[in-house]
Amino acid sequence: MENIFNKDSDIEIVDIENSIKSSYLDYSMSVIIGRALPDARDGLKPVHRRILYAMNDLGVGSRSAYKKSARIVGDVIGKYHPHGDTAVYDALVRMAQDFSMRYPTIDGQGNFGSIDGDGAAAMRYTEARMTILAEELLRDIDKDTVDFIPNYDDSMNEPDVLPARVPNLLLNGSSGIAVGMATNIPPHSLNELVDGLLYLLDNKNATLEELMQFIKGPDFPTGGIIYGKKGIIEAYRTGRGRVKIRAKTHIEKKSNKDIIVIDELPYQTNKARLIEQIADLVKEKQIEGISEVRDESDREGIRVVIELKREAMSEIVLNNLFKSTTMESTFGVIMLAIHNKEPKIFSLSELLNLFLTHRKTVIIRRTIFELQKARARAHILEGLTVALDNIDDVIALIKNSPDNASARDSLMAKFGLSEIQANAILDMKLGRLTGLEREKIENELAELMKEIARLDEILKSEKLLEDLIRDELKEIKAKFDVPRITQIEDDYDDIDVEDLIPNENMVVTITHRGYIKRVPSKQYEKQKRGGKGKLAVTTYDDDFIESFFTANTHDTLMFVTDRGQLYWLKVYKIPEGSRTAKGKAVVNLINLQAEEKIMAIIPTTDFNESKSLCFFTKNGIVKRTNLSEYQNIRSVGVKAINLDENDELVTAIIVQRDEEEISLAPMVDNIEVENEELLEEEAKGKMLFAVTKKGMCIKFPLAKVREIGRVSRGVTAIKFKEKNDELVGAVVIENDDQEILSVSAKGIGKRTNAGEYRLQSRGGKGVICMKLTDKTKELISVVIVDEDMDLMALTSSGKMIRVDMHSIRKAGRNTSGVIVVNVENDEVVSIAKCPKEEVDEEVSDENPDLNLE
């Protein structure tokens, strides 16, 4: 490019790209080294170091009077820190806050802010002085223990680092954002750090596991509870990790209501903002069960009171608060610091070793300084001793000398003294000539010679050097013996959504058109046998409730479709509605394919290998598969069963396997001949009981159906006597003392002892289960009687009735039974069991028992 400027001009042409790169790099390093990141040795950023050094210059120690913060800030920015006074004062304020610093280095007087986020008063109103810990950071700074560098205008010097008798970087931690990097080091307990350093002195190759026997983890000034050591271990090992912190709480009782009291908060949590956050969540109904939140904190400590409603469960509300508010927070550890003018991420052992190396350097330099000082003093005392030994000649020589210079030269020449010794003799007072003073000089010289020998030994011996470090650490621990504040729990489990949901009993209904909902079972009051029931759901004219069952909110629902696919859904994920609500389309909850229809829904609490899943189809097929094969469900589902053409699933039952199931020969579908002895042996285990809509049933051993894989068809359970018959229900029988409850479409039902039904081989034609007539219509299904449970019956019009099983009459096998549900022009479409209600609803006895035998 042609230079358009005069050759003699002072203007220099530069490449803008290179200039910007160079300037930005200079700026970046200035921020990294000079402002944002702490030194790995003393744990201080330049501004903090300059504040403490300026206060040391001013003589504002822990025992001196407080000095105005404005005076301190003025000295800092005038002498050492060429930046804004606000930045300096903000740093000074944080150094005085006991909720920000684990061990504050500034003792503040006045308003220095609060944990509620309140700012400090202006610097002209507050006063400050150093704490004892700050003095330990500066101890021996006047003994040439650290390097000094010129200040910003070269008018004076400032320390490059402080001697730091305490491991301040880990003790108080540090946080800062530089250019392209950031640091976030948590504070720790001084007692634990000292114990770890002492162990490291004795065990140079100590492992992280050994060090963590002493240094348990971060110790935050606001307390709280750290959940899980995994993040701590990772941070100590690599320099990076994530630590989960929760507020510390306890539960109190007040008028039969629970009260959650927050005693300690996670580090850097704003208390006022937290209370506001909780109030907003309650107002928006994102957290339920809270009636009032108030702050009762005082100078004694934090106390935030959260009053709950009478029916609220404290554990669930508390988990909701942890999940949705800053009562639980994550501290991202980045142990980045400056060493040798370069930023580096350190592990725990590296930082501890670096501190010990720094202390060794400081002590060596201090020892050299003290040794030189002792030798200089001993040199003078040796000269004085020579003078005292020759006092008459010395006095005569000085008396006859014309001036000081002549006397000094004469002393040096006659007695072999140095200039320093000769000057000391000339400056000596006559009072030093007494016998007592002579003895003092000799004693002082003897002590100095011992001290010189000791200091020499320290410089020559690594062991003595380490012993000195060890003694200093023990002294520090004794002076600042403060117990750990933050509690550490060994294990941490992320809060699962289930922890936020009460585990309540629900009635789940699904309609023919695929609308599903859940309703708390307590909304259905129990009625006496024969009651007309309450409306369970509002349906369209062409829709009706196809199935319903009871399950807890934490249970898993397995949906099996007409294509033999199985899907998962947690009960709590089903929208809760009122008794008359329509519900939500199930296709919006699980990933059904086009034209795919749900045929069976099975609730389960787990997928234990000791359980089996038995499928029963409309065509009388039974299939049994281990439940564990269905525990890993994909979004598109898994294959549950292979179905024949024109076959449908009727029900699926989870069965607990017998401890010792009988080994059987390979099964054959065409079983007509029954081996009574074999059946009698097999009857010792569980039995399967299946019924058809024509009133037939079959009871056969569970052992007759061996477990097979997911992608299989199954075997014959029952052969139908009539062509238009089909299987409508099945149950598992534990023993013949159990009772089976059968219900027909017209609400007729009966309880029959299981022993009345003859045991057959699988694949038989069965026996009569219920005597059917025009008044009963077809058999709907069966359930096992449990008098601790109630019966739920659902009609095609959407009515649901709850009946006490104890009120249903017992009858023989070949009978019809009594009216269980008064359906009038309606029909029962499904039955299920549910937990009992404690209070009975009084109804008139308009539906007396009807014996249809």
TrEMBL record:
GO CC annotation terms, alphabetical: chromosome; cytoplasm; DNA topoisomerase type II (double strand cut, ATP-hydrolyzing) complex
Active site: Y125 (o-(5'-phospho-dna)-tyrosine intermediate)
Topo IIA-type catalytic domain mapped to chain residues: 37-500
Swiss-Prot/TrEMBL catalytic activity: ATP-dependent breakage, passage and rejoining of double-stranded DNA
Main location: cytoplasm
GO biological process annotation, one example: DNA topological change
Enzyme class: isomerase
Coiled-coil stretches: 438-465
Superkingdom, natural source: Bacteria
Motif GyrA-box location, chain numbering: 527-533
Family note: Belongs to the type II topoisomerase GyrA/ParC subunit family.
Subunit architecture: Heterotetramer, composed of two GyrA and two GyrB chains. In the heterotetramer, GyrA contains the active site tyrosine that forms a transient covalent intermediate with DNA, while GyrB binds cofactors and catalyzes ATP hydrolysis.
Function, in words: A type II topoisomerase that negatively supercoils closed circular double-stranded (ds) DNA in an ATP-dependent manner to modulate DNA topology and maintain chromosomes in an underwound state. Negative supercoiling favors strand separation, and DNA replication, transcription, recombination and repair, all of which involve strand separation. Also able to catalyze the interconversion of other topological isomers of dsDNA rings, including catenanes and knotted rings. Type II topoisomerases break and join 2 DNA strands simultaneously in an ATP-dependent manner.
Protein name: DNA gyrase subunit A
Species in which this protein is naturally found: Campylobacter estrildidarum
Upper taxonomic lineage: Bacteria, Pseudomonadati, Campylobacterota, Epsilonproteobacteria, Campylobacterales
Gene responsible for this protein: gyrA
